Amino acid sequence: MTIDQHYWQGAWVDDAEVEKRLDALGEDVRAALGQQLGPLVVLAACDLLSAALADPQSSQSLRLAAELQASGVPAHEAARTLRDVAEALGREPLETKLMRELGGIDPGRLARFDFRREIFEGWLPVGLLVHVAPGSAPAAGALSVVEGLLAGNVNAVKTSGGSRFTQMLLAELAELDPSGLLAARTIVLNFPSSRTEWLRRLCEQADAVAAWGGEEAIAGVAALVPPGCRLIDWGPKLSFGYLTQDAWASPEALRGIADDICRLDQQACSSPQVVYLDTDDNEQVFAFAERFARVLDQTVAALSPAPPELLERAEISNTVLVARLEEHLGLTRVHEAADGTWRVLADTRIALRASPLHRTVWVKPLPRTRIVEVLRPMRRYLQTVGLGASRADTAQLAQAVLAAGAQRVTVPGRMLDSYDGEPHDGVYALQRYSRRVDVQLDARFSGDACLDDLVAARELAPPKAEVVSKNDFELLQDDLSRAEVFFRSGGSAGAPKLSAFTWDDYHEHMRSGAEGLLAAGFDVRTDRAMNLFFGGLLYGGFSSFFSVLETLQAVQYPMAAQEDHALVARSIVEHGVDTLFGMPNYLLRVFAAGAAELRAYRGVRKVFFGGEHFPQAQRDWLRTEFGVEVIRSAAYGSVDAGPLGYQCPDAPDRVHHLFSGLHTLEILALDEDRPAAVSETGRLVFTAHTRRGQRLDRYEIGDLGRWTPGECPCGRRTPRFELLGRFGDIFRSGSHFLNVRRFLAVAEETLGHRGALQIVLDEDATSESLTVRLEAQAGATEAGATEAGAAEASSAEVTAQAFLDGYPELAAAVVRDRLVDLHVEHLPSDAFERTAASGKLPAVVDRRIRNR
Asked: CA 419, CA 441: separation in Å to the nearest integer?
């Protein structure tokens, strides 16, 4: 054996080094399992390798093709193998596999399956997974390791033969993972089956062993598996075609069966070894075999297949010789190519039997009435049936062969095809490579949807890509081939645009929104919710929170924002609603219009809001007048990016935890694309981990914020950030940069204002003006204006002076530099300017010519 034949956790080693490392295998496994591996890391590396292998001229393709050809694989077969591997490693099929087999893109999260109960379940790795790979299928071992990596396992593979293809392929995969986690979980040893000592030492440490091969090989592995270790048997399987009289008269069906026989030279478990006919007439069997032989001859002639090995030729010769002898008894008829490239063996005996492969096929009778009787004794070996029949017969015969033990049913010509997420031999591989665990806790965890957040945040590095601004959103939509759900977004900070999602994207986002709402204090067991977000046009709020509450299985009154605010207030009281969802301005109008009823009811305990800032004075008014106990952000998000952050009960106003399972967040400096310091205000830039409908790489959402350092008292380890408004909230007036947030602070804290506030910037030939608009009579009672309303009614001069006193930079621009004229207006809410598309209230209206 050549030196450095083995690959051990990122290093190429020889036999002597393997001997040493086998003794420390248990320690290596424990160290690797100590670092958590999420499927997203595996998906990213597999996607890169898939793209490389799809290009025949890439360095990876050239190296692997050369290795295959050096081990005797023909060039065309090597190219086909690499194409198949490239397809199998693509992100889309692997995502589908995870979703189908383990129920989600991150199945290792210990998360609730029922939001009413403090029970957490997840799929965790078995530990050390040993793969005893087949020698006849060079890619099988590597693809099994990829499945083991998706499940989070440490993988040790036994290969045999002179080829290092499995080692090299997995080494290329590990090389594309910057984290090093894949290399730490991959061991590939090449040694013959006769070297049982190495295999025994592998199996002694294993938590599960996956083995391929014949019955004798599987039995040999089973003898080495210790008690309690899971044996995953991918043993020998047998597939066949089944044709009714309609189908065996069809040239298309015959060509399909011939293609299935020739593809991969019957080396796949799904390749047909027998063609059964729905008849008990031996003459029909012989006639079909003669006609099918001509079809098979034409199919093989176009392929120029490679000859079998010596031992395989011997088995074929023996089988054909016996069949020719039995012709004298009237039991068989043999049709064979002159050059020995194919054989059709007609046999009047009904029993299923394996063929010696290499384009050798039996033709046998099997009336449909005897399918279960004849095939059920062989049920543990049955896999695929290529069923050629009429539409009515297909349904009936499919049930019959499945009842007999078959695992797959398809049509002639597609027996070797597969689909993303298809079970293998009647089971899901990822489930066999994982273990389902649960944690049952108490009321201390009533607000926790996932235990992992209390341990660490799974943060992924942002991609190496340019930052994309909100105005350039379309640059992230170069491929919408997978998009299924479109939401119209924009209008508040730019032209409306369509944001694309798959349904899987949408459901993942709604699941995250539900988890965030639980953390924010929503109690699915007791709360009765009314959804008062806007619906239609640009709004995704109503439909999103409808789905979030559906995910929670909460009591919901999906009323949406109605123009008749008093009607909404009455509905709240009539239906015993205690929790409201909506935008602050709308909810305040409902409370104002239905003040008498809602004040008497005092049953609204929780308000979850989104879309706008909720001033502290308005919150105090709801608590004092109506008995509201919780006022908290329902979520921080946007239509184009989905849910981005959530609040916990310990979060200060405007501080959110990041949905780190969905996004990576960067906070970049205002003037350049560098990370902002922890206390520095910067631009929020998001990258989605699993967005399928469209890319979302380094997307500048249009908001400002800064990191919130330290640990949150709630115990969650997910990153926290404070929202500091939108880009437009910071504006230049005179020679100074001013922030709308500072105006709001003065209005709330000094003037007791609890209505809307809007800044209007204008200019004439000689000067620039800044007008502060304050909503008149916000929160007024039936008897008249409240104390806040009285403050708003004070003279414009007094109010303007309060802003000058409370905001030194404004005073510098207005009083010291005399560059800006300050004005104050008290207006009703409907007099404020709003965006035409979304109806939202822009914080700053800039009418200056230089900004048009």
From this structure: 39
Q: pLDDT tens, 414-471?
A: 999 998 889 999 999 999 999 999 999 999 999 999 999 999 887 889 999 999 998 8
Place of tokens 């290792």: 108
538 and 491 in contact (C-beta within 8 Å)? Answer: yes
Nearest to 584 by CA among 648, 634, 649: 634
Query: What pLDDT is stored for residue 4 in this prediction?
Result: 75
Q: Which two tokens stand for residue 298?
A: 């034409």
Burial of residue 177 (CB within 10 Å: 0-12, 13-18, 19+) is buried
Higher pLDDT, 410 or 793: 410
d(CA 322, CA 335): 13
Residue pair 144/172 in contact (Cβ under 8 Å)? The answer is no
Residue 607 structure tokens: 């308000």
23-33 core/surface letters (b: 16 or more CB in 10 A; e: else): eebeebbeebb
520 contacts 655 by C-beta, under 8 angstroms: no
Q: Residues of the chain with pLDDT > 90: what percent?
A: 78
> Can you tell me the mean pLDDT for 631-638?
95
Q: Phi/psi at 283 (nearest 5 deg)?
A: -65, -35
- Hey, what domains does the chain have and what are their CATH numbers? 6-234 (3.40.605.10), 238-410 (3.40.309.10), 451-726 (3.40.50.12780), 734-851 (3.30.300)
Q: What local confidence, expressed as pLDDT, does residue 544 receive? A: 94
Sequence-separated (6 or more) residues with CB below 8 Å from residue 431: 101, 102, 123
Torsion of CA 671, 674, 680, 686, to 10 degrees: 100
> Could you tell me how many residues make up the chain?
852
pLDDT of the residue at 764:
83
Check pLDDT > 50 for residue 46: yes
Closest CA to 703 of 681, 719, 725: 725
Best CA proximity match to 154, nearest among 6, 5, 20, 8: 8
**122 vs 213: which has the higher pLDDT:** 122
Q: Which tokens is 793 given?
A: 């009614």
Token duo for residue 682: 């910067």
Element at 487 (helix H, strand E):
strand 485-489
